[in-house]
Write a structure and sequence with these properties.
The protein is mainly alpha-helical. The chain is about 55% helix and about 5% strand. Helix 1 runs antiparallel to helix 2, helix 2 packs antiparallel against helix 3 and helix 2 packs across helix 4.
């Protein structure tokens, strides 16, 4: 990545827009694959400095619950979108968890298992 800060600024803008759009939807439950603190976590992973706007975005755009799915060695593969090795994914996961903890969340780690069991775990966590 040639300009990680520029890329992350664009990503942050997209995550903020996604948050705004999600809040407006007339649905009881909305799931987002990534959150605003993810951007900060990746910047921390890369060791890239970022302006205060990144921190403010995390503080001002909140989510109800955070589910973290840790890297799972048995199914992990690298590809064009996920170019990190499994070992790098473990380090990134720590940054993700720390980022959410920093902004006051209590991340819920989803255990490995079948898609059905993982879905049930998430839905039961929402109902409980």
């Amino acid at each position: 990545m040639e300009q990680p800060l520029l890329f992350s600024e664009k990503l942050l803008e997209a995550r903020i827009n996604q948050h705004h759009e999600a809040v407006k939807l007339p649905k009881e439950r909305i799931f987002l694959d990534r959150g605003i603190p993810d951007v900060v976590a990746y910047m921390d992973y890369l060791g890239t400095q970022y302006p205060a706007a990144f921190t403010k975005a995390c503080e001002h755009h909140k989510y109800d619950k955070i589910f973290l799915l840790p890297p799972w060695k048995e199914i992990y593969t690298s590809d064009n979108e996920r170019y990190e090795s499994f070992e790098q994914a473990l380090v990134i996961h720590k940054h993700l968890k720390n980022s959410y903890l920093t902004y006051g969340y209590e991340p819920i780690e989803v255990p490995t298992g079948t898609v059905a069991s993982r879905s049930s775990f998430i839905m039961n966590s929402l109902d409980g």
